[in-house]
Amino acid sequence: MKLYKAIWSLILTCIFTASYAHSLDWYYSLSARGGRLWSFEGAVQIEEGGLPLYSETFRPAADILRPELRFPVWEEIKGKDLQAYKSLLDKFPDSLELHINKGIQRKEAVWDLYFYPFLHKNGRYYRLLSFEWAYIREATAGLLNEDGQEDTPHFVSSLQEQPGAESPGQRYAENSRLSSGKFIKISVENTGIYKLSFDDLRKMGIDPAKVQLYGYGGQLLPEDFTQPYIDDLPELSFYIDKEQGYLLFYGLGPLSWNYEASKGLFTRLNNHYSTKGYYFVGERSEGTKPIDELPVPDREPDSEVRAYTAYKLHERDLYSLGGTGRECYGEDLMSNPDLNLSFHFDDILSGEQASIVVETAARSTSPGSTRLYVDNSFMGSMNYSAVSSSDSYTYARGSSLSKTFLPQGNTIAVRLQYNNNGVIPKNAHLNYVAINARCRLALNSASLAFRDPLSLGAGKVCRFCLESADAFTRVFEITKTGSMKQVAGELKGTEYQFKVTTDSLREFVAVNLKGNFPKPVVEGQVPNQNLHGLPAPDFVIITHPDFIAEARELAQAHRDHDRMSVQVVTTEQVYNEFSSGTPDATAYRRFLKMFYDRATTAEDIPQSLLLFGDGVYDNRLVTAAFSSGLSSPNKILTFQSKESLDGTSSYVSDDYFGFLDDNEGVNLPYDKMDIGIGRFPVRSKVEARIVVDKTLSYINNRDKGSWKNQLCFIGDDGDNNTHVSHADKLAESVKSNNPNFITHKIYVDAYQRETSSAGTTVPDANKRLNELLGSGLLLLNYSGHGSTTTWASEQLFTIGEIKGMQNKRLPLWVTATCDFCRYDDAVTSGGEYVFLNEQGGGIALFTTSRVVYSGPNYTINKSFIDHVFATKNGRRLSLGEVMCLTKQSESLKHDRNKLNFALIGDPALKLSYPEYKLEITHVNGRELQAGVYDTLSALSTAEFGGRVLRYDGSFADDFDGLVYPVVYDAEDLVETLGNSGNDVFKYYDRSKVLFAGKEQISKGRFTFRFIVPKDLSYSYETGMINLYAYNTRGDIEAQGVFKQFLLGGTNDAVLPDSTGPVIRLFLNDTSFVDGGKVNTKPSLIALLQDESGINMSGMNFGHDLVLTIDGRDRHILNNYYESDLGSGNSGRIIYKLPELETGRHSLSLRAWDLQNNSSVASIDFLVVDDLSPQLRDLNFYQNSEKAWFVFRHDRPASWMQVEFRVYDVWGRLQWRKQVNMMNPDNGSQELEWNYMGENGRRVENGVYICRLFVVSDDNEQAVTAKKIMVGLQ
C-alpha cells in the first residue's frame, strides 16, 4: 500500500474555517491488471473491486432535524488513478447524494449517514478530500457544527413515531397462561381437523366441561417484527359436541401456504425448525369458551363462489447439498434421471388453468438441464451452468420453472428428465414440485379446507356454494391462526350456502361431523412456568434441558462474582411461551425482545445472551447426515440463511437473536445488534461439564502471572503479503493504543519451509506457537487461510494438535480465517475443539463459521481489537459487550461478512487482564523527569522504582503483593523470506528478554534491580519494561509499561567472571534421584543460580537456555525461566517434557550467565508405564462458612483429574467434587467445600473420612485418605 499525497486540489465550493473537518486519507493498491484500486482509511467496501463508501453513525440530539454536508474539498481523478474505476464513475451524478437511515439501537436513536465520495461533472471525475457536518435544529432551523455538550444520545422508544400506539412493553402478558393450572402438550404433523373425545380428555386429567385449547400450531414465526405478534398462548376456538362427547379443532402443521397476488399463486413455506405443530390442552375456570361466530353481511352478495384454488406439494427433505442454509433437497436425479410423480385433486376444473412450480439443483463440470413434462406435454427446461472442479463453494446451481397448463383430469402426471450431457455430475436433486389448481367446491371427504383468491375485492360480498353437503355439514373460518369461527349458512338440498365479505383472503374448512378424524399425539404434561413474569436480567442463558444443572452453576458464579442478575431458561420453556411449543429459533429472539420492549432505559436491557448447546444446519434432523437418530446435536437451534447453494453467500448466525427493534430481522447486514451473544457448542453433559469448569476456573482467576500481558499475532503468507500486513497492522495498533501488552509476532513467511511427502510445513513457526501457548497468552489472533482442520497451507496448526493441547493458560482466540469453527456441522470443527479441549485450548473464540474474505476480515478484526481492551468507567467490558460493539462498528454496518463471525464462549465473561496500572517513578535512585532518558550499559546494575495506581488514576497505597518486571531490548527490524514469491515484508519485533524478575510491593510501592546482560543490541535505542502485579488477596491485578531509557555501551568496571551457572536438575519432584523412575510424560524441574545472573535474552548468539533430550531433541526454555523472589541471580524452570517411550533416557540443560559463561547439567532416568502419582500432605483447613482441601504431588505442569469424597464414619458418602487441574508446581490448587452434603443440607459437625482420587494425564491413578474433623478446631 502507498499513501497518496494530494499535490493539488480543485475547490468546487467556498471554504470557510472549519473546526470539525473530516478528512479522507486516500491510498491505493494495485489490481491484477495493474490498475490502481483506490480506497481511504475507514472506508466500507460493499463488494470486491467496487467503490469505497463513506459511512458514519450519528446519535442525534432530540431537536436535530437532519445533517448536511458542507464545505467539501474535491480533487480531480486523472490518468492511472482513473483507470480501474472509470466505468463505475460514469454513472455518478454531478452532486453528492447523502443517504440517511434512521434506526434504534438499545433504545437510542441512531442515524447511519453514508455516501459515495465521488462526482462526475462536465466530463471530469472527482473524489472528496474533506468536508464538515452541519446540523439543522428544530428550534432554530439554523446551522450548528458538532457540539459534544449538546449532541448527546437521547432515549427514545422504538414506537415513538406512532402517536397513540400502545407502548412496546404492553404487547406482553404480565404472566403466562402456563404459570398455573394443568396443561397437556399435544402435537400434529399435518394441517387439518383433529378430534379429541371426552374419554381422551379424562385420560389426560382434563375436565371436558372446562376444556380449553391454547396455541397457534407449527407455522414458521415471522422474522420481520413489523408483522403482527401473537403473545404467549392465545385461546383457540374449536367445535365441541357435548352430547356426542368430542371436540374438533383445526391444527396447523409446519407447512403453510402464502398467497402471492403478483404471481396469482399460493407458495409453500416450510417450518425448517420443526416437523410438528404443537398445542396445549388445559382447563378454563369459567368453562369452555364458546365458539366464535363469523358476522354475516347484511346485504346481498355480489357474486357466487363455486370453485376454489387447491394446492399440492411434493417435497422430500433428504439432503443438504452444502451443509449450510435452510433449504434441503430431495430425490437424487443422478440415480433416477427419469422421475415420475403424480398429483391427485378432487373435482378438478379441467377448463381452468393450473400452475406448476418446480425447483431443482445440480452441480457438474458440464452444463446440464432437467426437462419438465406435465401430462406428457413438454413445459420447458431448467438449465444449470457448469461449475469448475476447483470451485469449493458452489455446491450446486439452482434452477426453477413456473408454468401454467390445462389439466386433463383429477390426476396430474409430472415427469422430470435430467440430462447430464455425458458428464457424471457431483449432484443433481429435485427440491420440490408445487401445483395450484382450480377445483369444484364440494365436500367429498371428512373435511375440506378451501379459499378463493378470485373472490377478492374491496367491499365485496360473496356467496359460497358448497356441494355434497348434508345435515352434518359445518363450515368454519380458519384464517391465519386456525382458530375456528362458526360460519352461519343455509342447506339447500345438497348445497350449503353462506355469504361473507371478501375484501381480504379468507380460509375456510368444511367438516362432515360423521367423518373420521385423526387424533393429535399426546406429548405429555407441561410443568408450570412463567417466563413472562420474569424481571429483566443482565444476562440470559437459554439452555437445552440436558444442561440445566451446568447452566445454573455458571449463572450462580456470575451472580456471586460479577453481581449480575441472571436468568436461566430452557429451550422448551421458551418455545412454550413464544412459539406455541413449536421449536422455532425466532422464539429465542421474541423472548429477548420482551425484556427489550419492557425496558424504560438502556440499563434495563439485558447485556448478553448465552446459547448453552450445540446446533446444526439441519435443525429438524431430517437429512441423511442426521436422520439415523443416533444422536441429537440440535440442542440449540441455529439461524440459517435462505441461500443454501452458494457458500460465499450462505451463513449461520447467532447475531439474529440480538436484533430486537421492530424494524429488524429481515436485512441482517444493516441491522444493529442490541445485545452480545455467545454459544457453548456442547452436545453432551461431559462437554458441558468441561466448558463450565474451564469458565469457572477463568472467572476465579487463580492463575496469576505476566502471561496476562502477552498477546500473539499470526499472519499467513502469500496473497501479496495481505495476511501478514493485516496481522502487523493489528499488532502495531495494540502497541500504540494499549502499550501495556507485549505483542509477539509469528509471520509464516519469516520461517524456513520444510517439504516432505506429507507436504510443506514451517516447523519452527509451529514450535514457536506451541512455546507461547505453553508459557501463556491472553489473546491469540490469526489472519490467513484456514479450514475446519488446519491453518495455512503449511499446516501451521492442525486439528490433531488442537485436540492434544495441554496449555493451562487459556487465551481468547481470534481467527480471521475460513470455516475454522463451523459449529453447525455434523463433524466437530477445529475451533470447537479449541473450546471443548478439557486440558487446554482456549477460554473463548471470536471466530468464523463460513468462508470469509480477507478485506472485510481485517475490518472486523480491527474493530474487535479496538474494543477488546476498551473500558467503561475504568472497568473491563465483557466479551459479549466487545462482540456487540464490534458488530455495531461504523465500518461494518453494510457488511454481510460479519455475520460469519461468532463468539464461542461465555458472553458475560471478562477477559482476564489487569485493571490497575503500574508506573515507574525512579530510575537508579533518581526521580523520573520528562524527556530525560537514562542509558543502561551492559553489565551495569540498573534499579527502578514504581508505584500502583487504581483504575481511576489514584495512588493505591493499600496494595501489597508481587510485581513481575520483564525488561526487553530494543526493537529489531525483521524481514520475511519471500517464500511464496512475494516481496519481502519488513516489520518491527521486540522479542529479546534481558531480565525477568519478581519483587515485593508494599503499600503500593516497589523497587527492583538487575544486571544488564552482555548480550545486548548496543543500539542506543529505547528498551522497554513490561510490568505485571497482583495483590496478596489475589483479587486485584495491575500492569504497566516503561520505555524512557536507552540501551548501549558497556560497564568496564565490572569484575570478571569465568564461572557458569550452578544447575540442579530433577524430574517431577525435587526428591528425584539421578537414574530414577518416571512416568511417560514427566516434568523437568531445574534450579539455577549465578552471581552475575541468568542469561535469558535469546539474542541469537547461542546463549539460550537449551534442553536436550537423548542428545538430539532440543527445546528452548527461555520463556519458562522464573526468577526467585527478590533475586536477579537465581530462579527455576518447570517444563513438561514430550511423551517418551519406555526405557532409559537422558537429558541435559545448558545455561549461560550474563557474562556469557555457560554450564551444563545432565541426568539419566528410566521411563516406565503405569507409574502412579505420589500423593502426600493432604491438608484440611476450615472456618465457620467453608473448608479447603490441598495436597502435594509429583506431577507439576501436568493435567490431573482430581476427585475428593467425604464419608461419614459409617462409610456413607456425604459430598464429592471432581475437577481437572494443572498446577505449575508440586502443590495443588485449593478445593473449596461449603459443608453442603449430597442431600442439599449442611453436614453435622464431627469426624469424617476424606478420600482423594487422582488420575494423571497419562491415565495413572493414585488414592490417599485422611480423617478430618468438621467444626472441631
Strand order of the largest sheet: 56-59-65-64-60-67-68
Report the structural category: mainly beta
* Main β sheet profile: 7 strands, mixed, barrel
Low-confidence sequence ranges: 1-19, 139-164
How far apart lie the N and C ends?
72 Å
Helix content: 10-25%
Report strand %.
35-45%
Q: How many β strands by DSSP? A: 85
- Computed CA radius of gyration, to the nearest angstrom: 36 Å
SS summary, helix count: 13
- Morphology call: globular
What's the overall average pLDDT, rounded? 91
Summarize the structure in words.
The chain is globular, with a radius of gyration of 36 Å. Helices cover 11% and strands 38% of the residues. It is mainly β. The longest helix is centred in the middle third of the chain and has 16 residues, at 685-700. A seven-stranded mixed β-barrel has the order 56-59-65-64-60-67-68. A six-stranded mixed β-sheet has the order 45-44-48-51-52-55, with helices on both faces. Helix 5 crosses helix 6, helix 8 (722-737) runs parallel beside helix 12 (854-868) and helix 12 crosses helix 13 (879-887). The chain contains 13 helices and 85 strands. The model is unreliable at 1-19 and 139-164 (pLDDT under 50).
